[in-house]
């Protein structure tokens, strides 16, 4: 797969809500948006079109991205960026690379490898490579073969593996919304 900037050249199918927001939506968006970010993310303004569903995503999203998660920031971001790249979701990939790649310690080679299956995964550290292979198998087969499962089990507990699989699936769902709704790219986010 070569990543393609599909979203950057097409108009949104579901335009993000625009301010001023009615009070219940303004409150929801304030709770969804990362602390300290003055501009409300376009994805959240799209999700808020269905406030009941958006409200229910808060708990899972906060857990998966929070300090109480069972996996490290780096592991989480390897899974998220690879899942988004495999889905061709430049919006969400770019937001995560811009917001978390430095904190996760990604160098230029790691960013490039995680963004495209045309790159050699052997350039990644062994644990990162296992996570990328996990995401790739889940994306391609909706399953993990026995050999990879054994390797993953040597590094992560069953609880952590469940979390990693849920994280990959969650970001597939997010990618579907980003791509199909054609969420407009954030001006500050990374590009392919």
How would you summarize what this structure contains?
This protein has 192 residues and is an all-alpha fold. The protein has helices at 23-32, 42-47, 51-65, 73-86, 90-104, 108-115, 126-141, 146-153, 158-181.
Count of DSSP helices?
Answer: 9
- Whole-angstrom Rg: 17 Å
Order of helices and strands: HHHHHHHHH
Mean residue pLDDT: 94
Largest sheet: none
How much helical structure, as a percent, in the residues? Answer: 55-70%
Query: Can you tell me the overall shape?
Result: globular
Share of residues in strands: under 5%
The count of β-strands is 0
Distance between the termini: 12 Å
Helices and strands: which structural class? mainly alpha
Low-confidence stretches: 1-8
């Amino acid at each position: 797969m070569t990543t393609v900037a599909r979203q950057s050249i097409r108009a949104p199918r579901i335009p993000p809500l625009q301010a001023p927001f009615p009070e219940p939506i303004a409150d929801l968006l304030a709770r969804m948006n990362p602390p300290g970010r003055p501009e409300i993310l376009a994805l959240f303004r799209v999700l808020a079109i269905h406030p009941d569903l958006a409200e229910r995503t808060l708990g899972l999203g906060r857990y998966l991205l929070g300090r109480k998660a069972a996996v490290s920031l780096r592991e989480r971001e390897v899974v998220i960026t690879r899942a988004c790249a495999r889905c061709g979701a430049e919006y969400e990939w770019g937001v995560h690379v811009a917001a978390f790649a430095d904190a996760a310690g990604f160098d230029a080679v790691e960013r490039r490898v995680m963004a495209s299956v045309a790159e050699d995964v052997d350039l990644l550290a062994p644990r990162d490579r296992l996570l990328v292979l996990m995401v790739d198998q889940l994306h391609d087969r909706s399953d993990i073969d026995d050999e990879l499962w054994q390797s993953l089990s040597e590094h992560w507990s069953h609880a952590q593996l469940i979390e990693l699989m849920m994280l990959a699936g969650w970001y597939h769902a997010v990618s579907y919304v980003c791509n199909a709704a054609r969420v407009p790219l954030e001006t500050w986010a990374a590009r392919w």
